[in-house]
């Protein structure tokens, strides 16, 4: 299993970013995918997840209405569209899948929100 995140950047408050996670090594379209984030010294927290066919999504209260998770099962890619970014959204964002009861993570992509 390999998960490769991309798209992190420095953005001003109120700005937008789209993160991508390219997945391989497992039947992508059969598994729920998740985005987590983690700040130094903090626990990793769930941001959003999406069901295998994309019909069901869940979001942390802190990002509801601002972030949108989506997936393209033909491209084996999951996305996180982030709008109205706030300084507190500054974190390393990780892609996650649980495959055969094992948590797999990418290496993360850094999002910095600052003026």
- Sheet with the most strands, sense and barrel status: 7 strands, mixed
Please compute the radius of gyration using only Cα atoms: 13 Å
Strand content: over 45%
How is the quaternary structure best described? single chain
Give the rounded overall mean pLDDT. 97
Brief characterization of the structure:
This protein has 115 residues and is mainly β.
Structure notes:
The chain has no helices and 11 strands. Strands 2, 4, 5, 6, 9, 10 and 11 form a 7-stranded mixed sheet that branches. Strands 1-3-8-7 form a 4-stranded antiparallel sheet, with no helix packed on it. It starts with a strand and ends with a strand. 30% of the residues are buried. The mean pLDDT is 97.
List keywords for this structure.
single chain, 115 residues, four-stranded antiparallel sheet, globular, seven-stranded mixed sheet, mainly beta
Strand-helix topology:
Elements: E1 2-6, E2 10-11, E3 17-24, E4 33-38, E5 45-50, E6 57-59, E7 67-72, E8 77-82, E9 91-99, E10 102-105, E11 109-113
Parallel strand pairs: 2-11
Antiparallel strand pairs: 1-3, 3-8, 4-5, 4-9, 5-6, 7-8, 9-10, 9-11
């Amino acid at each position: 299993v390999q998960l490769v995140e991309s798209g992190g950047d420095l953005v001003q408050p109120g700005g937008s970013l789209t993160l991508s996670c390219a997945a391989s090594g497992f039947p992508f379209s059969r598994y729920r995918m998740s985005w987590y984030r983690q700040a130094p010294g903090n626990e990793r927290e769930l941001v959003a997840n999406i069901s295998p066919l994309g019909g069901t999504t869940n979001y942390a209260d802190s990002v509801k209405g601002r972030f949108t998770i989506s997936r393209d099962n033909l491209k084996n890619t999951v996305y996180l569209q982030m709008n109205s970014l706030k300084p507190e959204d500054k974190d390393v964002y990780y892609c996650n899948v649980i495959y055969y009861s094992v948590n797999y993570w990418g290496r993360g992509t850094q999002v910095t929100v600052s003026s």
